[in-house]
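Lest this sound abstract, we let one protein speak, letters for residues, whole numbers for local backbone shapes, and leave readers to judge:
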Amino acid sequence: MKKKILVIDDEQSIRLLLENFLSEDYTVFSRSNGIEALEWMERDIPDLIICDIQMPEMDGYKLLEKVRQRGYTKHTPVIMLSSHETSKERIKCYKLGAQDYLTKPFNPEELEEMIKKNFHPIHYALSW
């Protein structure tokens, strides 16, 4: 059974890009803002979340706080996406409980490595 990834981004092009890129190996669900994502998580639980920071209605920071407050998603890995490359934003995400932070535009191969790292914390490579 494929692992479930929830993509949250207000930009449809990013959602479609991630759905197309990840759907071969994962079951991908996407929502356009934090409120829609939380409503979806009332019915289903993702194995990993990829979330934009700047979104209408509920930004990524608030969503991350709410994900960490819920018992059933408290330990779900979260990768934050941002169009801003600042240490301040990155640190804020880590303090709120994000596992990783990736700047847009991003390299899909780097995202894939982040996902694998979060699903297999010791690392997935057998060649060590």
Remarks:
- The CA atoms of residues 22 and 78 lie 16 Å apart.
